[in-house]
Amino acid sequence: MTTSASTTEKGRGGVAGSGIGIIAGSACSVPPEVCEAYGIQVVPLQITYPDGSTYRDCVDIQPAQIYARMPAEMPQTSLPSAASIYDAVEKLRAQRCTAVLAVTLGSAYSGTHGLVERILGEQEGLRGLVYDTGKLDYGAGVSAVMAAKAGRESMTVGATNGRVEVLDSISYYTNSDPLTLENSAKLRYICTYGPTTTITYPENGSWNWVSLVVRDAPTEEMGGVSGGCRWEGDSLVFRVTNNSRTALDNGVILTDYGFVTVGDLLPGQTAEKALTPLPASAPGAPRNRDEAFGDGVLLSEADLTNFSYSIYDFVERATRADPEDMTPEEYKEAMIRRSLLSNISRNSDGSRFRFIAFCDGLTDLALEVDGQPVTRTAQRGMVSVDLAYDPVAEDGSVRFLRDSFPVYSADEDASGKPLLVEQLDPTQYQSFPLVESRAFAFDLSSLPRDMRVTDMDISIRYAYYSYQVSLYNPTTGEWDEYKRYTVDDITGLAKVETSLPDLQEYLMNGFLYCRFERLGAADGYADIDIPTIIMEGRVE
After folding, report:
1. Among 52, 315, 323, 528, fewest CB within 10 Å belongs to which?
2. Is the CB of residue 259 less than 8 Å from the CB of residue 277?
3. What is the pLDDT of residues 376-435, one digit of tens each?
4. SS3 per-residue string spanning 67-119
5. 20-25, strands of its sheet edge to edge
6. In 3D, which of 124, 123, 104, 122 has the Cα closest to residue 114?
């Protein structure tokens, strides 16, 4: 359960910003003059070219030089060296810093976050916090600059019966363009950990109300809220039951395939909602984006690809917030709901089907501002429940969606036989160069024993290159061609050729091994992300 609160009360007093050092990855793109002015230590990513030459980003090679070598030479980036991070820490120690805030690229894009977090965790006598920006490039750089420029005048917010956190999806800018250094100087905060965790905001006029998340506060028991979903024909049907003692407001179901509003759900009530596909578009006629992302609309795989769907598209539509059509209080309420939905979507553990609702009575927060009880202008509790997905419908049809099966990286021995390596996390983006063939494995041990497969596809989420997929046949010891994905170099259109295999012939100890190989000329860089498998069939 997550609770949000807001206040208009201003601070009285100051906070010293000394003793806190800043580390930023080179890909955060913080300008050198800013790093020098605020003592920001930069750790460089490593840039490796196909010929094996490696450079330190912004040290041995500059961005302009990298761009000049494209597209003839496409480099690959890797983590900063551990030595460069240790060196940055020691430089901050020499400046008598007692705490370090490290700002990295989003953990979904880079392993830098985890490496820096591990090294800072080893340090004695030095507090460390690694901030996951969730962004690429300049957005992360702005976060680093804002952290270094935390203001002198302050307002300190804490909760004596919970742990406060900032909703980083909210920006309090007077200017509508947050990605400028001028505006970044107007916002940030200092989080102080202790018996009562507090957040201190600079008093600078860039905001007039603050939205917070309070975690770990004592709450009502909400274990009675549950639900699931399954297919009925072409519609994905959800059933959610509220067996708690608390009324839930403004419920919404967020999925990887669309959203549907549930509305209010009283104790003892069950709601049934569905995502239903739109009628097929006329051949060659593009789908309207706003129509495709409508309430209760089930997006097809083609829609998901064509519209570059993000969960935030659904969040914005599920929590309409228009200051022109709302009173100030209504707008503030809508923005709090949107912020909470965005925050829980960002921190999702990979759940594809989630019911979220709001209520006022989950907890009674004990918020303080500058050590004094605060008068809140809005407070919302939020309940988030993962919905169980049943791939087998009542009529016996079976649909396994993307990310239904665990996926592993694999190697091959000298004879070409695949070897299982490690499980991959589909919620974290990973890139695999296609310099040579690349093998993976799907754990299909959860398939219904009597399922007859009628359709199957192994693919990657982002396909920019032509590739071939082969399946390993444990009986013959050969890799059999299964799929060819060919991209026209001129039009950019893709052609897919695939065959439906007898799945039982290719299973080895419950695993299906596949191998990706690049098709066409080997010039230039090519890579793939974590593959996924979808499957349809019937239970006989």
Report:
1. 52
2. no
3. 555 667 788 889 999 999 999 999 988 889 999 999 998 889 999 999 988 777 888 887
4. HHCCCCCCCEEECCCHHHHHHHHHHHHHCCCCEEEEEECCCCCCCHHHHHHHH
5. 41-43, 20-25, 99-104, 127-132
6. 104
